[in-house]
Please model this.
Amino acid sequence: QVQVVESGGGLVPAGGSLRLSCAVSGSTFRGNGIGWYRQAPGKERELVAAISSGGTVNVADSVKGRFTISRDGAKNTVYLQMNTLKLEDTAVYYCNHYYSDYDDVGSWGQGTQVTVSS
Model:
């Protein structure tokens, strides 16, 4: 069953910005929180940023200072604002509920492709 839907990806020049959205059909925070993950070609999926049910955030060192995770007031949408995009940010981005830890997640959806061009 699809629990989350990602959108907002696209092709963007290096140094540009994108905002990804994660929408859910119900409460955003069914578990402990929502995380944004990404998987680049040939690489393992990794956590990019997460926001807990209480609104606390965690951002990966690789994107800290460039990416910001946030939620709307109704907690139906979680955003990932991506600024100063780099070529290495190219990946399929996924959002997902996380539970006991960031590796304990729900089913993966299709994700949204972010491609950063040089």
The radius of gyration is 13 Å.
